[in-house]
Amino acid sequence: MSKLDRKGLARLRAELLEKRERERGAGGLIEVIVGMGTSGIETGEMLATFLKRNPGLSFKITDRDEIIATILCGHDGRRGYLHHLAIAPGYSNQHVGRALIDRSLRGLEHRGIRRCHIFISAQNKGGPEFWKSIDWAEQGDLTVFSHDIEFPTG
C-alpha cells in the first residue's frame, strides 16, 4: 500500500459498522484487523448488541471492499468511550484513524456527550504518543479495574 494522497483518501469509504454487522451478528469483525486487542470474552453477538445500543457511533473504512480501519464507540449517557481503534498495516500515519475518531466524536457531540475516554492496552507502545499528538490528555489519576462476570452453565 502506497501513501494515500487526497484522491486516495476520497476513494476510501467510511460507513457505519451497524449497517451489515448488526444483521450478520458481526461474527468475524473483531478479528478482521490485526491489533484489535479484544479480551477474548467478546463475541459477534456481543458486538452486535453494543452496536444496537450505540447507533451511529462506530465506523469502518474500506478500500476496494477490504476493511482497513475500524472504531468502536459508545457512551453511558455522560461520557463517551472509544473501545477499539484499529488500522490495518500500511494505512497508519495517513489520517485514516483521525477520520474515524472525528466521526465518532461528532456523533457523541450530537448526543450531548462532552467528554470521551479511550482505554489503551499496555502492550500498545505507540498508542499513548498518538493520542497525545492529537490533543488527548492522559488521566494519570485513574486506574482501571476489571472483573469478568461468569454465568452459570446448564
Characterization of this structure:
It is a single chain. A five-stranded mixed sheet has the order 1-2-3-4-5, with helices on both faces. It has 154 residues and is α+β, with helices and mostly antiparallel strands. The radius of gyration is 16 Å and the shape is globular. Helix 2 (18-24) crosses helix 4. Helix content is 32%, strand content 19%. It has a single domain, classed as Gcn5-related N-acetyltransferase (GNAT) (Aminopeptidase). A hairpin with a 2-residue loop joins strand 2 (59-63) and strand 3.
* Helical proportion, percent range: 25-40%
Please report the distance between the alpha carbons of the first and last residues.
Answer: 49 Å
CATH architecture assignment = 3-Layer(aba) Sandwich
CATH topology: Aminopeptidase
| Radius of gyration computed on alpha carbons | 16 Å
List the uncertain runs: 22-35
Q: What is the CATH domain class?
A: Alpha Beta
Question: What would you call the structural class?
Answer: alpha+beta
Shape label:
globular
String of helices and strands: HEHHHEEEHEH
Strand content: 15-25%
Strand count, sense and closure of the main sheet? 5 strands, mixed
Short description:
The protein has 154 residues and is an alpha+beta fold.
Features:
154 residues, alpha+beta, Aminopeptidase, five-stranded mixed sheet, globular
Break the fold down into its secondary structure elements and pairings.
Blueprint: H1 6-11, E1 13-16, H2 18-24, H3 29-32, H4 44-53, E2 59-63, E3 66-75, E4 80-87, H5 96-110, E5 116-118, H6 127-133
Parallel strand pairs: 4-5
Antiparallel strand pairs: 1-2, 2-3, 3-4
Helix pairs in contact: 2-4
